[in-house]
Amino acid sequence: MGDGYKIIHDGVHGSMKISGVILDLVKTPEFQRLRGIKQLGLAYLVYPGANHTRFEHSLGAWYVAKRLSEEVGLPADEAELLQVGALLHDIGHGPLSHTFEGIYKHYVKERDHVHLGRDIILGKINITGDEDGGEIPEILEKHGLDPKAVADIILGKSDKPYLGQMLHSGVDVDQLDYLVRDAHYTGVAHGIIDLERLLRVMRVHNDQFVVDEKGVEAVEGMMVARALMYSRVYFHHTVKIAEGMLTRALEFALDEGYLWDFWKMNDCRVLVELEDLEGLPSELTKKVMHRKLYKAALLLSADDLSAEEKRELLSAYRNVKRRQEIEKNLAEAVGASEGEVIIEFSIADLMLSEPRLKETGIMVVRDNGEVQPLSKVTPLASALKRRQTPRWAVMIASPARYIEKIREVWREVVFK
Q1: Does residue 285 sit within a domain?
Q2: Which stretches does DSSP call E strand in 327-401?
Q3: Structure-derived torsion over alpha carbons of residues 370, 371, 376, 379, reported in degrees to the nearest 10
Q4: Residue 415: how many other CB atoms lie within 10 Å
Q5: Per-residue pLDDT of the chain (416 residues; tens, 9 = 90+)
Q6: Residues 302 and 405 in one domain
Q7: What angle do CA 255, 261, 266 make, to 5 degrees?
Q8: What is the helix (H) or strand (E) element at residue 384, kind and residue range?
Q9: Is 282 inside any structural domain?
Q10: Collapsing DSSP states into helix, strand and coil, what is residue 363?
């Protein structure tokens, strides 16, 4: 254990006492870096209060993990592993959180922040660039923790299935914190959940993380809150337009040979670097920073598209170059400049950033001792799984002067 302790006053959970390995990890440059990464990326352009950071959320996830450990009576070694995993689960996040994650596979060696986090925990990469960076594996080993076990648990893996499920499942400590926190800072009441009730109805049963039947209503409330927050906040079309514009700025910079280490930066650094470049990266970044955003020309639901059109668009989502080609062709067709027409995807993007959204395989222990999936206990789980979140699947955005023309020609250009 480390010497002493500190009290952190959190806007959501109140006073939190940290000590030992948790305090040592919080002091590292890797963890302190999270102070400069907004939890909700560019959502502050729509919800002015959304300025909270991954630092706060990571501490909150640790605190919820600590409380859950106590509620279910985990042995001390398992409780410590879960808490460390919760604290470090977002350590690999890049600037503006999920904003640039859709292009990681094309431009970064790892496909998402979770796998980058794994490499940081294992000491394979130094994300801070400082000589005193890369401290995490040494700290873990000093406290008798295996870095690989910690890396595994943030991927939802563990020798004890329930430990991985507590951090990565249909209902877990990560979601319990971010739903409460994001609702608090955005002011959107849809995200309010009964955290106290949820913590008290969870337990371990036959090596699985389960919920007592008497807690089904609390789980239903969490699932509804989660679905509505994705519709109302995380995939608000204006937020996605801003993220799309800034992503295009970064793509242009990367294609010109700049900012290849963007994933190591914090929000302020990447914005300054992009603004300082010439041409499109700078122009688009300034538009976003000054909230001179494009408008939605089309918001298409899955029902608006044929099966063949869905396949074509999914191919464009998976292939950055193909999507860029379609955007360029559409811009030329309506007389716009390169970078003035963007295509954004919700459902495919959502599955990348939050694969748990459709997860309803939460196990419930019935009063008679029988264990069943939540979908067998309540019809609401299946209904939420079928619900399209958000309502739009594909969006095309541009400056207002091109909107009418885009609506006339988009199908002919995109699917030619």
Answers
A1: no
A2: 342-345, 363-365, 371-373, 394-398
A3: 100
A4: 13
A5: 445 899 999 999 999 999 999 999 999 999 999 999 999 999 999 999 999 999 999 999 999 999 999 999 999 999 999 999 999 999 999 999 999 988 988 898 767 899 999 999 999 998 887 766 679 999 999 999 999 999 999 998 999 999 999 999 889 999 999 999 999 999 998 889 999 999 999 999 999 999 999 999 999 999 999 989 988 999 999 999 999 999 999 999 999 999 999 999 999 999 999 999 989 999 999 999 999 999 999 999 888 989 899 889 888 988 999 999 999 999 999 999 999 999 999 866 554 445 555 555 689 999 888 999 998 898 887 787 666 567 888 999 999 999 999 999 999 999 98
A6: yes
A7: 120
A8: helix 379-386
A9: no
A10: strand
Q: Which two tokens stand for residue 258?
A: 């700049």
* Amino acid at the residue 301: S
Q: Which residues pair with 15 in a beta bridge?
A: 9
Range of the domain at 139: 8-235
Q: Which residue has the tokens 């280490």?
A: 261
DSSP H helices in 230-346: 237-255, 267-276, 280-289, 307-318, 320-334
Q: Residue 5 is encoded by which pair of tokens?
A: 């302790």
Residue 236: φ, ψ to 5°: -55, 135
Q: Is residue 403 part of a domain?
A: yes
In this structure, is residue 29 part of a structural domain?
Answer: yes
Q: What is the SS3 assignment for 210? A: strand
